[in-house]
UniProtKB/TrEMBL annotation:
<keyword id="KW-0472">Membrane</keyword>
<feature type="domain" description="DUF7789">
    <location>
        <begin position="1"/>
        <end position="70"/>
    </location>
</feature>
<feature type="transmembrane region" description="Helical">
    <location>
        <begin position="156"/>
        <end position="176"/>
    </location>
</feature>
<dbReference type="Pfam" id="PF25044">
    <property type="entry name" value="DUF7789"/>
</dbReference>
<keyword id="KW-1133">Transmembrane helix</keyword>
<protein>
    <recommendedName>
        <fullName>DUF7789 domain-containing protein</fullName>
    </recommendedName>
</protein>
<feature type="transmembrane region" description="Helical">
    <location>
        <begin position="188"/>
        <end position="213"/>
    </location>
</feature>
<feature type="transmembrane region" description="Helical">
    <location>
        <begin position="91"/>
        <end position="117"/>
    </location>
</feature>
<dbReference type="InterPro" id="IPR056691">
    <property type="entry name" value="DUF7789"/>
</dbReference>
<feature type="transmembrane region" description="Helical">
    <location>
        <begin position="19"/>
        <end position="40"/>
    </location>
</feature>
<feature type="domain" description="DUF7789">
    <location>
        <begin position="82"/>
        <end position="213"/>
    </location>
</feature>
<feature type="transmembrane region" description="Helical">
    <location>
        <begin position="129"/>
        <end position="150"/>
    </location>
</feature>
<feature type="transmembrane region" description="Helical">
    <location>
        <begin position="52"/>
        <end position="71"/>
    </location>
</feature>
<keyword id="KW-0812">Transmembrane</keyword>
Amino acid sequence: MFCIYYVTRGILQENRQELIVFVLSILLEMIRSIVNFSVLSKDVKPDIQPRFIVILLVGLFHVVCALSLVLGQNMMAFRVGGALESLQLQYNMLSLCFSLLTFDLQAQLCLTVLVLFSGLYKISAPHTIILVIGLVWAFLKVTIGILAIIKELKPLVWIFLLQNLPEVAYLVYLLYKVVVDWGSGGSYTLEAAAVTGSFISVVIKSVLFWSLYRVYRSFGQGLRERMFSSYGRIDS
């Protein structure tokens, strides 16, 4: 679902970073298919070999098409004629913020699914309720973040930042539980996945805060009016 969103928005909005994430996602899926196919027994391989070949061919086609757009010279970051370089930079940061909001949401959802359904460690009923509330919290947080950027409302930006604090606290708690139960199941795969996912989530949040700070400083400088004006110009 996220891949479909990334490739659609990446093409329609000419958003390079989301096309790059789409390419990485497809490559990850192809690598996963290759690993799964390579460990199967010889008796099972002929039954799924056609599907395996189709996955690789379609995935390669997607990668080539997406890279042709990413590396192409026709993608414009700002379509308004005569836009100042400073406004183009603001637009790029705004687009990066929107992308990072989606990346952050995906990271939170993936970590929640990992904790709930992978059997990483036994979780209590209250902890399950907290995770479910966390999903609603993540969607609410992203909605507030989008509204804060689109409407250029500084109070909503601070509310959005405060909403991230419980998520960061939960990441610390998750890492603590993983370290305490490290290797108890005889395998380190799930533990490594949890640590990697938490690290990626922290990196996404860090870059998101940095880009949001840059966008926050540009509030009221005419970018919103230029983007949503039907005439595409800033009133003097």
